[in-house]
Amino acid sequence: MTTVRLPLFPLSTVLFPGLVLPLNVFEERYRAMMRELLKTPEDEPRRFAVVAIRDGHEVAPSAPGLPDPTAVPARGPAAGFGADPLHAFHKVACVADAATIRERADGTFEVLATGTTRVRLLSVDSSGPYLTAEAEPLAEEPGDEAGTLAEGVLRSFRQYQKRLAGARERSLTTGADLPDEPGVVSYLVAAAMMLDTPTKQRLLQAPDTASRLRDELRLLRTETALIRNLPSLPAADLTRGPTSQN
Q1: C-alpha–C-alpha distance, residues 242 and 14, integer Å
Q2: pLDDT by residue (tens digit) across 30-66?
Q3: Keywords for this entry (predicted)?
């Protein structure tokens, strides 16, 4: 089994292959990671793995608070993730390639990364200045009828967009720019839908593209019907998420 060792960046969100991720890096453990990545030659990928947090906090507490105002906050690369960080994370992560890493005058970083491939976490090492993971690359299998399913998902997604735009009383501007390659469709729709983290994680770790598309088709039909019945449902932009606090 071929494995890779990667710096690990836990977040309270799911990154998908092909999607762009802006990061505002201010915690020391992740600043150390970015300083190390900057040592990589510019013509080589600056890779790290983004994993969704299952049980823990994206930002480690930096001061005492409730319920114990005298407790000393945990520090170090695994702060906020318990004694065994592997159990705090979902098992399937997305490799990110940092195209831009810009250090600010105060030592924080502005990072723009793009998801590339999926990996399965096998172990997490907290002995260094930041977490690293031993990971197994996951193949991208098309599955049965991926092309036909992608066409159906695109039709349903356009209806979903229209319903969501109508509920928010704004114009629809993204429908003409959708791709048609099944794998790309599956990840774009997974990222764009208004879903909770466990559901997005389920889509990320689907065994193949066709399985992901089938799941998305069910979700799109359900969500579109929900929006139709609840026209005041709040939502964020379809193709852009908030910058992570980290």
Answers
A1: 12
A2: 999 999 999 999 889 999 999 999 975 544 444 455 4
A3: Membrane, Transmembrane, Transmembrane helix
